[in-house]
């Protein structure tokens, strides 16, 4: 089992999650983070830390966002690791909760 970063992280990217991960299994793209499914130890520490409530256990992914399981696995192989919190984008709050952000995912 793994935890998965889902759509609401896109363009919010608060990065609070990376600070609590004991195995540093977050990977960073231009406007989104992903979790490496083979490295995640299923500790659940990151889930309550995300201000955007974008992190879910694999078996609790909201309906319609199932593709993020595959997206996390794919992009964790190509993006660089991130283990320290960064400042979020200036307009992060404006994007929090907006629907249809998947098409804005930058790879
Ligand atoms: Fe890291 Fe634990 Fe979150 Fe997995 S569940 S990404 S190991 S903090
Ligand atoms: Fe994204 Fe939430 Fe982490 S917005 S960067 S999953 S704290």
Automatic annotation (TrEMBL):
Q: Does the keyword Zinc-finger apply?
A: no
State whether keyword Cell cycle applies.
Answer: no
User: For this protein, what is any one GO molecular function term?
Assistant: 3 iron, 4 sulfur cluster binding
> InterPro entries from the xrefs?
4Fe4S_Fe-S-bd, 4Fe4S_Fe_S_CS, 7Fe_ferredoxin, Fd_C, FdxA, RnfB_subfamily
Full protein name: Ferredoxin
Q: Which cofactor does it need?
A: [4Fe-4S] cluster; [3Fe-4S] cluster
Give me the stretches of Basic and acidic residues compositional bias.
95-107
Alphabetical UniProt keywords: 3Fe-4S, 4Fe-4S, Electron transport, Iron, Iron-sulfur, Metal-binding, Repeat, Transport
Task: Quote the Pfam families the UniProt record gives.
Answer: DUF3470, Fer4
Q: Where is this region: Disordered?
A: 83-107
Function summary: Ferredoxins are iron-sulfur proteins that transfer electrons in a wide variety of metabolic reactions.
Upper classification of the organism: Bacteria, Pseudomonadati, Pseudomonadota, Gammaproteobacteria, Oceanospirillales
Query: Which PANTHER family does the entry link to?
Result: FERREDOXIN, OXIDOREDUCTASE
The coding gene here is fdxA
> Could you tell me which species this protein originates from?
Halomonas lysinitropha
4Fe-4S ferredoxin-type domain sequence ranges = 1-30, 31-60
């Amino acid at each position: 089992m793994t935890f998965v970063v889902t759509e609401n992280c896109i363009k919010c990217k608060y990065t609070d999650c990376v600070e609590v991960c004991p195995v540093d299994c977050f990977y960073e793209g231009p406007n989104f983070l992903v979790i490496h499914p083979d490295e995640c130890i299923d500790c659940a520490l990151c889930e309550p830390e995300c201000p955007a409530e974008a992190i879910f256990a694999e078996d609790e992914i909201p309906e319609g966002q199932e593709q993020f399981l595959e997206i996390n696995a794919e992009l964790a192989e190509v993006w660089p690791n991130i283990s320290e919190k960064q400042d979020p984008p200036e307009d992060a709050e404006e994007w929090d909760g907006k629907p249809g952000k998947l098409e804005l995912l930058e790879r």
